[in-house]
Design goal:
Layout: H1 2-32, H2 37-60, H3 72-101, H4 105-129
Helix pairs in contact: 1-2, 2-3, 3-4
Amino acid sequence: MWRYLKPFIKAQLSAGIGYVCDYSSMLILKELLGVYYLVAIGIGGIVGAIINFLINHYWAFRSKDKSYRFGTSGQLWRFVCVVISGISLKIIGTNLLTILTHVDYKLTRLVMDALVAVFFNYLLQRYFVFKQRSD
């Protein structure tokens, strides 16, 4: 059980750090610099993704027993695909929730972030981006 739980906990800590950077960047861009909120979400997502990739690669998914199936460049390519898809889901979902519910984008963004993080990002990062060799 711990074998599966440990990478999940580490990945959630990594995601949390990336998320703080992502969300803070979005707020600075939107609230202080006046950037359109959907653009700010995209840029913040990129900032958070860079930080998340580095932490995941060097700590969250690293194993002492097994090496990664793909090298850093292969991981980066896969990670970029996952990030672009995840950011797109967050932008589209946030926009739809904001329009449909008339709730502030800061709250609808939190809902979409939680959904994308649990049901999309973690699974793809664990089993597609940072996949371990099965030697």
